[in-house]
Design a protein that fits this description.
The protein is an alpha/beta fold. 32% of the residues lie in helices and 28% in strands. The protein is built from 7 helices and 10 strands. A 6-stranded mixed β-sheet has the order 6-7-8-3-9-10, with helices on both faces. A 4-stranded antiparallel β-sheet has the order 2-1-4-5, covered by helices on one side. Helix 6 (172-187) links the parallel strand 7 and strand 8. The protein starts with a strand and ends in a 14-residue tail after the last strand.
Amino acid sequence: MIELEKISKIYQMGKIEVPALKEVSLKVQAGEMVALVGASGSGKSTLMNIMGFLDQPTSGKYFLEGEDVSQLNDNRLAEMRNRKIGFVFQSYNLLPRTAAVANVELPLIYGGASQKRKRALEALERVGLKARANHKPSELSGGEQQRVAIARALVNNPSLILADEPTGNLDTKAANEIIQIFCQLNRDGITIVMVTHEMDIAAQTKRIVRLLDGQIIEDKLTGAKTCEPPEPTRS
């Protein structure tokens, strides 16, 4: 699904060049659930932004589902971003005076889709929040607000979800509930790449990629059973 070839990113700070990524190569197969970890400034968020077309690499190539992203114009990038990728952020990014269902509808409005309300309610149902569809963010807990954000990411049926510190503002109980939602979405076939600094969260994914000073220094399978299908019950 994702193939990065020698991706570098250099930010210009006046006359100083600051390298955020240094020839990073990475493959993520369809159906994987991967955690990107590392200290602040390691390059993990920059890498995720490049994966989501929110930033452009200084050099290197990025292929998404076999398509060379570097060859696409802005309109095509925007179309792919809206159709193939769902985004979840630490701060939820919900419109404060707008009901949950209307927040979820936003990507459909931008894309000119039909049956917006029906699809938004279905997305809220997938995250267990359909009953709170008409509540505003201020009437929801942090965990519920993040569920709305996940529903918004799901509403266009993306093949990839990029989550940047999705549990960073949540207590342990709510964080674990959010991870379980991601696990179910992954079992449903959605590829998930998650940035996190919480190793207990990362350990629940299937694979951990660790960055340091803009380079990958470790890439390992976790062997975690968290996201495995539950064992069938026996009568």
